[in-house]
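Morning F.,

Quick status update on the modeling queue. The single chain you submitted on Monday has been processed. Sequence for confirmation:
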Amino acid sequence: PGTRYERKHLLHLAAARSLRSFDNLALSAIKKRLASESPEGVEAIVKRHLAAGPLATALGIVVEAPAMAAALPPPHLPAAPVAVGAEKRWSRLELAVGLELHVRDDISPLVRALAAKVWKICVEGEAGTDDVVKIGAT
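Structure tokens below.
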């Protein structure tokens, strides 16, 4: 049988991964940070970037879908016009730990619909086995 971890250990592992991936902390800094955190503080670190999926389920944490509507207006709405010469703005959407989708704010309705579909497949698990792409497969 596989190794079993208690919730406390899973939280610390997930928090360490989050601090390393998103805050770019060195392992020594992560160790100090986690040693100084309360159990609630460790859980808060994990919740900052936790996506719905097996880890959230194992931890018993209900992950609300991030504000997809705020990041991407519904596909039927046209994107807001962008002034010529204006700096392009991007939204980062975490699809899973280590996987992000970067979406420019002035995308076309077709691209917006595609981004929404990718979001649903990755975050809400609405994909069949035929929809899954194997990364690194040769």
